[in-house]
Amino acid sequence: MPLNHLPADFVWGASTASYQIEGATKEDGRGPSVWDTFTARPGVIRDGHTGDVACDHYHRYEEDLALMAEAGLTGYRFSIAWPRVQATGKGEVNPKGLDFYDRLVDGLLARGVEPFPTLFHWDLPQGLEDDGGWLNRDTAHRFAEYAALMAARLGDRVKHWITLNEPFIHMVWGYGLGTHAPGRALMTDCLPVAHHQLLGHGLALRELREHGLQVMIANNCTPVWPASQSPADLAAAEAYDNLHNRLFTDPLFTGAYPDLSAYGVDATLGGSVRDGDLDLISAPLDALGVNYYNPTRIQAPTAEGLPFEEAPIEGYRRTAFDWPVVPDGLRELLVLLKDRYPALPPVYITENGCSVNDVVTEDGTVPDHDRIDYLDTHLRAVDAAVAQGVDVRGYFTWTLMDNFEWAEGFHQRFGLVHVDHDTQVRTPKDSFAWYRDLIKAHRAKAQRT
Ligand code: FCB
Fold this sequence. Notes:
Elements: E1 11-15, H1 18-21, H2 34-39, H3 57-71, E2 75-79, H4 82-85, H5 95-110, E3 114-120, H6 126-129, H7 138-154, E4 160-165, H8 167-177, H9 192-210, E5 214-220, E6 224-226, H10 231-253, H11 277-281, E7 287-291, E8 296-299, E9 309-311, H12 327-340, E10 347-351, H13 369-387, E11 392-398, E12 417-419, E13 426-428, H14 430-448
The structure holds beta-D-fucopyranose (FCB).
């Protein structure tokens, strides 16, 4: 496959997140997270699944490291469970939690895999949620303390750090609609959560810089397609773009929030922005992490309430999750980011992948050709974006192995590796071998030239 524009040292990776894979939620001093509390509520997760055991990665990480080595990954994006290293999110540090990430990092480095930890992938310590969670400005300060302690422990070996995962999804699903933890349904009153997460990012960035480390944030980004060129649809699309994309990138790269007046909110986001906050938030980043799944088509609202309405995207194949497969949307998005922000730093694709109804066949294989096609076409889209001048340094597919997919429980399989959730048996899928061969070929070519 010709991916001629990707740089020789392009990082080939896979992503995971602590709550989705680790399990061992009550072991070795880990405190409860909002996801433990949320999944214990009846009716919120499909079939009542929880991450109590997940992929049991906490105990099986050696096996998982071996899989990464076999795939030839050169990067691994994982997240640190904050309540594993600080049970209540403040004060006392849990040495056993720190030891786990220490072993994981050493295991990665021993196999030539560069670690890319994310400090927050949604599993906030319940102790902080009890004080208001991300609605409380103080959480941003606690986050910076936690970032500092992780940098002190791992910063001698870990160069690349990701502060937050998808602050947009966490705000909307967790605090706006309540379909994710912590399960608050505040609608537009959730907007201070955007600012407090970004403030946490800015404060953590300052701590990580003290240790000379490289910092990025992983944002969920989507190209917004207006359903028509009518002024009403265009206005709705702009309002949606401001909420989903610009709310989390404008402050980073321009030092200001976008216009949110369509949501009845002024530039202080409900009075939460204070002097100096935006200076912290807009401190230069080493890279932007882009999580891409699909574009979003938006039309004018047909009912009272929000200033937009989502419209279906027709004419594309769909994943098992019913998400449209639009590879060129990734190229479109990357070029848009470059055009929109003169200060855009290099980009890593920190998540991209698809859910497939994978089964292990009688001969023990998992023929996931839809996933191979998905990854192939999206990587070509990345290559095309690089050809158009976007500086993309790496690609982390979502995800290494089938895992706990939030409100969907174990029903969506996104992995390169099939996991039997009863036995924990891992079976590499055909896409695993495909990715391994691609990485090998790209690296061999890079060495020749
Ligand atoms: C993203 C999340 C990730 C995973 C994928 C499918 O929004 O960051 O944890 O659930 O979606």
